[in-house]
Amino acid sequence: MIEKDTYKTITKASPEVLFKEKNSKFFGYAFPVHSEDVVKLHIEELKKQHHSARHWCYAYQLGKEERNYQFRANDDGEPNNSAGMPIYGQIQSFDVTNVLIVVVRYFGGIKLGVGGLISAYKTTAQMALEQSKIVRRTINQDIELKFEYKDMNKVMRVIKEKNLKIKSQTLELDCKIIISVRLKNSEAVFEAFQSIFGVQVKCLES
């Protein structure tokens, strides 16, 4: 059984894919994204690149945990739910997140009907994800440790024993270390540091 503290995403932008249907051309792209600002940048770039296209339809999902997912599907002038949702359906089908899929359509003069559009947008999104490198990553919890310099050895011993990753450290008279811990281990690690007298432990918001 796969732990709930992992998620799947893509590592880099997919190559451009092309699907043709009755003279209409559908260009598909998948991008790794972490914010709505990055989503907007990619869409603006594609609008410049394909300035004579008719529609720039897309869907994205942000977040590492299901309960925190943010998603959006945009039909960009196509009939309701004929483009954005079929694209989003492929994000769900491939079980990926922090991803944006854009499908750019050049109208070929023959109407495809709602069913034809749904099929074309779904297929193009699927092709873009099939061309992407999908990886599984762990969801981590950042924990902040504050302590006096005299307690350094005790803290470092636990970090070494548990093979913890240090994200940042300030080692002066008053010390502060931020460690990154896999979510499923975070409670045990938190308690291990809490048991050391003189160490203040705090979980940070991701």
TrEMBL record:
Q: What is this protein called?
A: Putative YigZ family protein
Q: A GO BP term, please?
A: regulation of translational initiation
Family per similarity comment: Belongs to the IMPACT family.
- The species this protein was found in: Gelidibacter sediminis
Sorted alphabetically, which Gene3D superfamilies does this protein's record hold?
Answer: Impact, N-terminal domain
Q: Which Pfam families match?
A: Impact_N
A cellular component annotation (GO) from this entry: cytoplasm
Name all Impact N-terminal domain ranges. 22-129
